[in-house]
Inverse folding.
């Protein structure tokens, strides 16, 4: 049964630009948001499968910024809910900065958003301060995730790992963490060589997230690093849909897997010479080979 009174407003207007201009100035105008119908959204959204399903689950958060425009403050959300859409234009930032000066407008959710706005215009320190204050008021996976991404951008893997771990624990405490957070956290753990921890995180994921292409690939990397060659082999047998031309993650797994099997079969050390031999002897199947320069004479 449809719940027309739930979620995003189906039609909403604002008198902001009617009421704020001076009476002797140019004529104002009414800003109206067109109706958004779930069926139309479902048929026009990009993506498919789990990504599309997640977008439809987020439908109820659409147009949360209307309250900031009409009421002068951003409503506070539950930290366990997805944070909704992001606005980064200067006009929105000015409105939100004014909202933060109100006693009822300065809360974790408004600070989360102002941090994103500041980051968008290059104010890293301002963004960082906003996210720290947001967590001091109400800890959330989203502010900790943003701090983790900021530290990773700065090259501080240790701080990034700590923030991601906290974000993951907070998100997991509220149910299944978003697949995007799982992917980012697994990528960092693999990049820092913490494959046992990555395996533990992977084991917490629901089947729907394990089935995502990027997480399947990460599972292959984890299995290979932990010596589970059969599981790494299974990861390569999947038909991937979102690999870009030029990516080498799948072929990297393939060549390392072949080298490790060759080392086990021959008793030879797993060194550069053996890896070069494996790459020469075992070309990858076309289904996983997205390299741009993969001709035998140039390999």
């Amino acid at each position: 049964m449809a719940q027309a009174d739930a979620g995003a407003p189906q039609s909403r207007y604002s008198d902001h630009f009617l009421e704020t201009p001076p009476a002797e100035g140019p004529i104002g105008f009414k800003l109206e948001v067109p109706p958004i119908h779930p069926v139309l959204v479902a048929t026009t959204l990009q993506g498919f499968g789990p990504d599309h399903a997640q977008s439809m689950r987020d439908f109820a958060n659409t147009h949360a910024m209307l309250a900031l425009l009409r009421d002068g403050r951003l409503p506070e959300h539950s930290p366990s809910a997805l944070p909704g859409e992001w606005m980064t234009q200067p006009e929105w930032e000015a409105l939100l900065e004014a909202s933060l000066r109100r006693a009822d407008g300065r809360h974790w959710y408004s600070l989360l958003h102002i941090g994103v706005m500041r980051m968008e215009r290059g104010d890293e320190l301002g963004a960082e301060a906003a996210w720290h204050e947001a967590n001091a008021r109400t800890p959330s996976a989203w502010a900790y995730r943003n701090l983790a991404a900021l530290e990773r951008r700065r090259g501080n893997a240790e701080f990034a790992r700590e923030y991601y771990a906290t974000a993951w624990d907070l998100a997991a405490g509220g149910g299944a963490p978003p697949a995007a957070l799982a992917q980012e956290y697994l990528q960092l753990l693999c990049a820092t060589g913490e494959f046992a921890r990555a395996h533990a995180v992977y084991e917490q994921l629901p089947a729907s997230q394990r089935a995502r292409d990027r997480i399947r690939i990460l599972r292959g990397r984890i299995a290979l690093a932990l010596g589970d060659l059969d599981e790494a082999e299974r990861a390569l047998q999947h038909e991937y849909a979102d690999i870009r031309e030029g990516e080498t993650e799948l072929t990297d797994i393939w060549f390392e897997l072949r080298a490790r099997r060759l080392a086990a079969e021959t008793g030879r050390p797993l060194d550069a010479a053996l890896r070069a031999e494996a790459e020469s002897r075992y070309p990858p199947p076309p289904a996983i080979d997205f390299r741009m320069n993969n001709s035998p004479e140039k390999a």
Remarks:
- Residues 249-266 form the longest helix (18 residues).
